[in-house]
Amino acid sequence: MRVYVSVDMEGCAGIVHREQTDPKGYDYEIARRLMADEANAAVAGAFDAGAEFVVVSDSHGGNGKRNLIPGDLDPRAQLINGVPRRLGQVDGIDDGYDALLLVGYHTRHGRSGVLSHTTNGQAVANLWVNGRVVGEIGLNALVAASFGVPTLLVTGDDMTVAEGAHDCPDAELVTVKWALGRYAARSLHPQVACDAIRAGARAALARVGRVRVAEPETPVRVRLQFKESGSAEAASRQLGCRLDDDDTIAFEAPSMAEAYQAYSAAVEGWLPAWGGWTKG
Ligand SMILES: [Zn+2]
To answer: Could you say which of 106, 117, 166, 189 is catalytic?
Structure first.
């Protein structure tokens, strides 16, 4: 069994503020260790469940997806970090995995929940794929599903877990904190959170081979609403796609991977601006 663990930061226990998730912010050094501990908990659960290979994707944009200190990770796991990546937070998922585990995730833009946003909090208002509004959980789950990989674990605050239940019906759900607002939460102790994530990953992976993955319909229809109309204008010119509204572009892609890449190009500004675009 091969397991892909994608770890974001906003949904880890104890994290409630951008200062914690920003490399220049107060307490970032603590937050990145909380992130590593939760990643390791999922890795341990995967090996408990009989995994032969586990990869961890550093999926938090804060520092060009270079938040995890490599030596902090469980030595049995391999690490994917850095940007740009063809498939973003699940890059390499097309490399033959049996399950995707999403750890430390958050709600989509516009929803309640700690530090909610959709990939680039400065640019993106709403994203629809095949008519359904999605955030990072739904987007990654669709990319994984297009390669036949089920999303079997979602961890984060209670609102995130509710979004996960909606977008990933086969997933085990682990709540590590309860949102009291966008910048406040009641959290489990980190050790208790990690124990729950380890148990959750173990339970989730018992489902491998027993869940049916619904592959996204093709061509994949994407609508992307920006926070500003100027971003939509620029993206429509760059991609050669139509403006669906003053602040919204629409396009179709032959596959979910290509839909993701076009989305990413529209949102991140694409090359050569990559060095400065590290949201996620
Ligand atoms: Zn993040």
So the answer is: 117
